[in-house]
Amino acid sequence: MQPRSRKTRLLGLLPSRLVTTRVRTREKVLFLTFDDGPDPEHTPPILDLLKAHGATATFFLIGDRIDRHPEVVQRIVDEGHELGNHSWGHPFMSDLPIERQMEEIARADASLSTYDGRATHPFRPPYGVLPRNLLTRFARTGRTIAFWSYDSQDYERLPAPVLIRQVQADPPRSGDVVLMHDDNAGTIELLAGLLPEWRAQGYSVRAMPAGRA
Q1: Is-catalytic flag, 64?
Q2: Is 116 marked active-site?
Q3: Fewest CB atoms within 10 A around its CB: which of 27, 108, 171, 177?
């Protein structure tokens, strides 16, 4: 697989107010995101690494895990990171009618709002599955889909040195939104290798701008 898929390139052709894949910036910045948390085992070490390297990130959280691990969510907020909506139960949105899709999103928003006070949050569809009816509904209501432009492929659960070599062979560029997951140990090792390397290359690592949530 390639870190820049045909799908993300095509989504990048849509107006950024509808779907965000990259962020326009004149600075040397990578925008780091994590999906599928909070995870009580793996999210805290990731937060430790981010803090050690002066980095921030956006965590796209699953609603039913938020309620199970509130202390992890609170730490994410307390340490200056951003919260994103990754649905309530992580379904394939294309399997659900549009009203059920919106219920998944609204329920997760409500849970997230107890931590950061925001009524709505950037939404990233589970598995990257973006049904046309959901895209249309977001366009009508003025919300933005928060996608990505660079896939670290950490979900493949390959050894960290293999993943690091893959990233080094085709590295992210300034403005890229980098997809990672905070639910496995491999990501911790991958991040531990990449953060100092990115910093040495002059990049700052930040949370994805919220845009129109």
Answers
A1: no
A2: no
A3: 27
